[in-house]
């Protein structure tokens, strides 16, 4: 990015840099560019304003944007050029107040924009050059004529200073110094001005020495210093009070640390006192004021001989004059610290090596410079003149000291030289003699007492005896990079093993590594100053306190952080300062000035991704707050792969690392790494806390920590509520299974009980029929004595009573097993109850009891099961009369309301004890006083009442006092007629009502039991009870021809063989019951015409509906009157003859939907009539052709026509032809001959004969 316009800093510590191509966000470890969604591309400059925690971006042509922290992008707010309707408007500066109202200085005036109020303009069409805050509610604004103050609360302005008429200034920048109450005004072509308010008023002062070029930036960097950015002239540092120019910073191609570009557009000082400079051609430059004030960096400056010759500093020496010598990779540099002059020696040499690794000054002031491959150069300390050169080539003897790593002078004045590829050499300058000790590879030499040397080698620490020339290995196993001796303790710097502390007295060792706080285990140099050990490593400087064994790093200082120090390249100056050599020059600092300010960094969450996608892009995970402020995130069970992108903020050191762990998953913290993205895959569902740590490059110093809670919701089938639901479901299923099993057992037992009661009732009713039959026959006899008649009457009453008890018992059992169903009908409940009361009047009078009925209305219609209600009323009234005292009264009161009706039955009798009241509605229970009263009862009547009332949704209540009487209260809700119609049950097939009625209203005589030929009608009696079957045979054999069968299977054989005229069948029979037999008869084409009467002991309506639904013609309940059975048989047969006659009168297809009640017979009859009508003009249409068209045999056709019409097929055809002929003659449109031919008669004479015989008159009379 080359052309930059402005720099600002947000609350998180990010540096934002604007340019036309986008906005750059900078931190030490992360740089990213944001594109701006321009509304138009004609952009010259892009500037920013950060306030109230929000970053605004505006362009010179009026486009306004805001940074959306949640979505991490810039969004367009408005285009002011379109709103002011001026495409050429230029926006110079922008401010944002505490209410987020935007104020912009433009060529169209002062613009005020608020998202609620829109755009307002002040000072229309006046060019406003700049804006600058005066305080929280007022700001300066500048025009060509004056500077004013605008109050945003009152939206009013005042003139602060008016420029002289002869002074025409065009302002480019303004900076207000609140403390000094001074405005610094930068102009486009007139340099810098100062507008200061004093006692005498506001004074405008021109600043001298500032070039008359555009002043684009003014930035105070201290209370006394301003930095002024001049377009084309770099940065000028000026004293605010004296206006003296302190320094000028410009672009210098020969100085890599100089300003990059002289076209300065903005200067910004951040919270860490770093200065950022935007230039037109060189991008952004910055320098750290804090580091430069504490640490002095000595470095090479390109094309500048008055500087360090090379930045790789391998050794440093302060001579006795206070000057500094530097051994580098390109010769030796000499720095006269008093004159600040530099000299360099042996640099850029072509023939010999330029690398120098060791420096030493002997007691005579001579400088010894050891090189790598060229031996030793001895120089004059003042002039740098070479005094002697010791090397393999120019030194007598076998001098093996060309690769020198270290040089020292001992107490005796001998020079000791150590290195590689050679020997340990002791040299005496005065005698120019040397002694060699072969096969030593030495990096460091330190004197230990007058007679011994400590030497660091490639394999450990050696103790060398000067006298004997022998050595002892003290510690081995590592490469020694530097040594420092403190009394009997040797501090050893190693390559990869940290620091080893060796005790020469007890031979013990102790190590310090990165685990203890060292920045790196590669230690380059060790020195002692100011009470501490100063240790240079591959990753920066640290300080070791021997007393408390603590190690501190200096990551907050830029120059000392993460820098690689060179081996044994350090020097403590006489003033106590420390100079250390690095691969980027030498660093000079005072140990007293290094403040122990720990890093104050923060962990910034840049992004959170789930399954490789940012949660900003996932609809159901879109955050409502910026991701860095997110404390908790909830994910679904399949969103269990998560990664976090982290950025270290606020740290000076670039070596910050991250460590993390997830509570519940990880036992230990992860190893600190510089990876900025942490990822976890396939995390099990649950709630976790991701714990984050940022550590400095020592890996032990924790800079910052933070936590993010992650809740991965389990799949619904693994949630606690679902598991509980499953548990409850399984438990419920188990309970249901148990209850179902118990219910099945109950039903099985109930069915067995019902079957037992039904069978018993069947047997009882069968026996009652056998008893009732002879009694009825005896009732027909005359001549019985009075005593005999009384006995006969008593027997008749008991038969009826037994029949009623059996019926009530069966009703109770049906309710008990839940088989009773309501059959609603819409009735007048007043009339229904009154009718039942009237039935009991005679019975009440016989017991001298008054029966009184009252009602609060004349009529009340409601939907009820009338049969059940009748039984409820009958039971209550019967019990009231039965248990009332003689000469008492039974009150029956009916009260009808809009939503319910209530029946109250009150007696004055024996009453019911309190104990008995609790058991009153239990099965078969009777109170003791009822039992003691000798009144006969079963104990099921009231329970039946309760069940019937409950089925209606009502309730029954009893109020009683023993010896006084009882009151029963029945309350049933009102049910509308519509409900009755929905619930009404009907037979599955229509019932021929006329046929059922005929058995009651059309009694027939005995002679009607024969057919037209005079023969007896045949009746099949099917009954499994032998006595009842024989009784029915003897009772009806005089009237009918009787066939007998003991079960349904034998009955079906007889039906197929003899085709009886009627069947009387019991229902409950072995092998095949009556229902099955009836269904088989009615569903078979050959037998569907045969009437069926069913007999049963089961008097329920459901059984009757079932029988009638499958085609039964009548239904009788045992015990029955044999005479009634005879009459019903005769009536059904008589009605069959009526139907036959009706069928014979059909001359064409009937328009009636039903001719016969049996569907098969009805269809067959209609088809026969249609076939005959289709062939009515064919004289050759015979019975055989008739049978062929009907797809039956002639014999079967004969049986069907005979059973349905009592005619042969020929008679059937002739009858239809004659009826058709009668219709034709009646129309008087045809002659007799024509009619005879049209109706299929072969001759007119035959036609006339049969016509006269059939109708009783001739065809001629019909024509008349």
Structural class by SSE content: alpha+beta
Main CATH class of the largest domain: Alpha Beta
Number of strands: 75
| Uncertain residue segments | 984-1008, 1147-1151
CATH superfamily of the largest domain: Histidine kinase-like ATPase, C-terminal domain
Shape: elongated
Strand percent estimate: 25-35%
Rg for CA atoms = 63 Å
Number of domains: 7
Describe the strand arrangement of the main beta sheet, using strand numbers: 65-67-68-70-69
Helix content: 25-40%
Number of helices: 24
Oligomer: single chain
Which architecture name of the largest domain does CATH use?
Answer: 2-Layer Sandwich
What would the average pLDDT be, to the nearest integer? 85
Largest sheet: number of strands, sense, barrel closure: 5 strands, mixed
What does this structure look like?
This protein is an alpha+beta fold. It folds into seven domains: 128 residues, YVTN repeat-like/Quinoprotein amine dehydrogenase (Methylamine Dehydrogenase, Chain H); 112 residues, 7 Propeller (Methylamine Dehydrogenase, Chain H); 117 residues, Immunoglobulin-like (Sandwich); 98 residues; 162 residues, 2-Layer Sandwich (Heat Shock Protein 90); 154 residues, Rossmann fold (3-Layer(aba) Sandwich); 120 residues, Orthogonal Bundle (Arc Repressor Mutant, subunit A). Helices cover 25% and strands 34% of the residues. It is built from 24 helices and 75 strands. A five-stranded mixed sheet has the order 65-67-68-70-69. Strands 72-71-73-74-75 form a five-stranded parallel sheet, sandwiched between helices. A four-stranded antiparallel sheet has the order 1-2-3-4, with no helix packed on it. A hairpin with a 4-residue loop joins β34 and β35. α3 runs antiparallel to α4, α4 crosses α10 and α7 packs antiparallel against α10. It is elongated.
């Amino acid at each position: 990015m080359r052309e930059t316009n402005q720099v600002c800093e947000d609350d998180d510590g990010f540096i934002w840099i604007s340019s036309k191509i986008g906005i750059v966000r900078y931190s030490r470890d992360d740089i990213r560019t944001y594109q701006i969604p321009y509304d138009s591309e004609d952009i010259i400059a892009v500037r920013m304003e950060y306030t109230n925690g929000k970053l605004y971006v505006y362009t010179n042509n009026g486009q306004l944007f805001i940074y959306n922290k949640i979505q991490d992008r810039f969004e367009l707010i408005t285009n002011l050029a379109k709103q002011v309707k001026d495409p050429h408007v230029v926006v110079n500066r922008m401010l944002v107040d505490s209410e987020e109202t935007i104020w912009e200085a433009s060529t169209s005036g002062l613009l005020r924009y608020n998202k609620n109020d829109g755009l307002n303009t002040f000072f229309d069409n006046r060019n406003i050059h700049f804006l600058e805050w005066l305080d929280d509610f007022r700001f300066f604004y500048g025009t060509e004529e004056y500077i004013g103050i605008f109050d945003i609360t009152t939206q009013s302005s005042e003139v602060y200073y008016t420029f002289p008429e002869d002074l025409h200034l065009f302002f480019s920048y303004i900076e207000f110094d609140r403390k000094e109450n001074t405005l610094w005004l930068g102009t486009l072509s007139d340099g810098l001005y100062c507008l200061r308010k004093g006692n005498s008023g506001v004074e405008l002062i021109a600043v001298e020495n500032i070039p008359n070029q555009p002043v684009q930036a003014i930035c105070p960097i201290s209370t006394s210093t301003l930095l002024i950015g001049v377009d084309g002239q770099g940065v000028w540092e000026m004293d605010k009070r004296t206006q003296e120019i302190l320094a000028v910073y410009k672009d210098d191609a020969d100085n890599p640390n100089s300003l990059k570009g002289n076209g300065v557009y903005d200067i910004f000082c951040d919270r860490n006192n770093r200065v950022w400079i935007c230039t037109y051609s060189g991008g952004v430059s910055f320098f750290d004021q804090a580091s430069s004030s504490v640490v002095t960096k000595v470095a090479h400056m390109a094309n500048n001989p008055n500087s360090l010759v090379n930045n790789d500093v391998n050794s440093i020496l302060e001579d006795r004059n206070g000057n500094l010598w530097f051994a580098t990779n390109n010769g030796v540099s000499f720095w006269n610290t008093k004159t600040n002059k530099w000299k360099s020696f042996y640099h850029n040499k072509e023939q010999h090596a330029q690398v120098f690794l060791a420096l030493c000054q002997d007691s005579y002031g001579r400088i010894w410079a050891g090189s790598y491959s060229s031996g030793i150069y001895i120089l004059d300390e003042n002039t740098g003149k070479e005094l002697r050169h010791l090397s393999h080539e120019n030194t007598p003897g076998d001098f093996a000291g060309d690769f020198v790593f270290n040089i020292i002078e001992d107490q005796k004045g001998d020079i000791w030289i150590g290195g590689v590829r050679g020997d340990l050499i002791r040299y005496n300058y005065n005698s120019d003699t040397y002694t060699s000790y072969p096969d030593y590879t030495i990096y460091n030499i330190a004197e230990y007492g007058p007679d011994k040397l400590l030497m660091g080698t490639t394999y450990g620490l050696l103790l060398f005896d000067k006298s004997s020339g022998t050595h002892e290995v003290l510690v081995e196993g590592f490469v020694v990079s530097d040594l420092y001796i403190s009394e009997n303790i040797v501090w050893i710097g190693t390559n990869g093993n940290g620091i080893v502390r060796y005790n020469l007295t007890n031979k013990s060792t102790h190590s310090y590594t990165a685990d203890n706080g060292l920045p790196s285990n590669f230690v380059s140099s060790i020195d002692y100053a100011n009470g501490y050990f100063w240790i240079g490593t591959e990753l920066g400087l640290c300080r070791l306190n021997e007393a408390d064994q603590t190690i501190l790093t200096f990551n907050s200082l830029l120059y000392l952080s993460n820098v690689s120090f060179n081996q044994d390249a350090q020097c403590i100056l006489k003033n106590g300062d420390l100079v250390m050599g690095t691969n980027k020059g030498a660093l000079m600092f005072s140990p007293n000035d290094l403040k122990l300010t720990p890093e104050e960094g923060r962990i910034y969450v840049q992004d959170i991704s789930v399954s490789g996608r940012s949660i900003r892009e996932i609809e159901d995970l879109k955050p409502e707050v910026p991701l860095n402020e997110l404390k908790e995130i909830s994910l679904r069970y399949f969103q269990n792969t998560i990664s976090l992108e982290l950025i270290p903020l606020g740290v000076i050191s670039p070596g910050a690392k991250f460590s993390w762990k997830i509570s519940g998953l990880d036992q230990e913290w992860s190893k600190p790494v510089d990876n900025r993205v942490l990822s976890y895959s396939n995390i099990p569902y649950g709630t976790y806390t991701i714990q984050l740590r940022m550590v400095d490059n020592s890996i032990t110093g924790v800079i910052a920590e933070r936590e993010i809670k992650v809740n991965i919701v389990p799949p619904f089938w693994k949630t606690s509520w679902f598991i509980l639901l499953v548990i409850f479901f399984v438990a419920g299923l188990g309970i249901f299974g148990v209850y179902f099993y118990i219910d099945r057992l109950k039903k099985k037992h109930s069915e067995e009980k019902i079957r037992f009661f039904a069978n018993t009732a069947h047997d009882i009713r069968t026996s009652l029929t056998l008893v009732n039959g002879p009694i009825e026959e005896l009732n027909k006899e005359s001549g019985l004595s009075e005593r005999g008649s009384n006995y006969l009457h008593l027997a008749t009453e008991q038969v009826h009573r037994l029949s009623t008890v059996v019926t009530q018992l069966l009703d109770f059992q049906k309710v008990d097993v839940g088989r009773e169903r309501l059959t609603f009908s819409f009735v007048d409940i007043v009339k229904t109850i009154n009718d039942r009361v009237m039935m009991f009047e005679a019975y009440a009078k016989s017991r001298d009891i008054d029966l009184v009925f009252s009602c609060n209305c004349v009529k009340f219609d409601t939907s009820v099961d009338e049969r059940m209600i009748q039984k409820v009323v009958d039971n209550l009234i019967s019990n009231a009369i039965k248990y009332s005292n003689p000469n008492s009264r039974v009150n029956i009161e009916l009260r009808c309301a809009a939503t319910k009706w209530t029946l109250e039955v009150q007696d004055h009798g024996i009453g019911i004890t309190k104990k008995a009241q609790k058991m009153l509605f239990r099965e078969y229970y009777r109170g003791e006083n009822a039992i003691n009263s000798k009144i006969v009862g079963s104990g099921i009547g009231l329970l039946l009442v309760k069940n019937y009332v409950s089925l209606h949704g009502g309730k029954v209540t009893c109020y009683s006092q023993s010896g006084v009487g009882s009151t029963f209260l029945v309350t049933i809700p009102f049910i509308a007629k519509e409900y009755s119609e929905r619930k009404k049950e009907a037979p599955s097939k229509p019932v021929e009502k006329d046929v059922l009625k005929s058995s009651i209203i059309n009694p027939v005589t005995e002679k009607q039991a024969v057919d037209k030929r005079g023969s007896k009608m045949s009746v099949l009696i099917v009954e499994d009870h032998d006595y009842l079957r024989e009784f029915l045979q003897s009772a009806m054999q005089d009237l009918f021809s009787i066939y007998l069968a003991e079960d349904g299977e034998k009955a079906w054989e007889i039906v197929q063989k003899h085709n009886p005229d009627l069947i009387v069948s019991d229902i409950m029979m072995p092998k095949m019951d009556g229902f099955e037999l009836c269904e088989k008869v009615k569903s078979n084409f050959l037998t569907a015409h045969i009437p069926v009467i069913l007999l049963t002991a089961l008097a329920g309506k459901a059984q009757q509906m079932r029988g009638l639904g499958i085609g039964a013609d009548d239904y009788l309940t045992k015990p029955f009157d044999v005479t009634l059975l005879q009459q019903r048989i005769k009536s059904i047969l008589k009605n069959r003859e009526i139907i036959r006659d009706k069928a014979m009168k059909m001359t064409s297809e009937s328009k009636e939907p039903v001719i016969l009640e049996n569907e098969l017979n009805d269809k067959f009859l209609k088809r026969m009539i249609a076939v005959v009508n289709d062939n009515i003009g064919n004289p050759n249409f015979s019975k055989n052709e008739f049978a062929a068209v009907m797809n039956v045999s002639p014999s079967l056709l004969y049986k069907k026509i005979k059973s349905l019409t009592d005619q042969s097929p020929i008679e059937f055809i002739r009858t239809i032809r004659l009826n058709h002929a009668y219709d034709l003659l009646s129309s008087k449109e045809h002659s007799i001959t024509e009619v005879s031919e049209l109706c299929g008669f072969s001759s007119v004479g035959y036609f006339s004969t049969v016509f006269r015989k059939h109708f009783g008159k001739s065809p001629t009379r019909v024509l008349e």
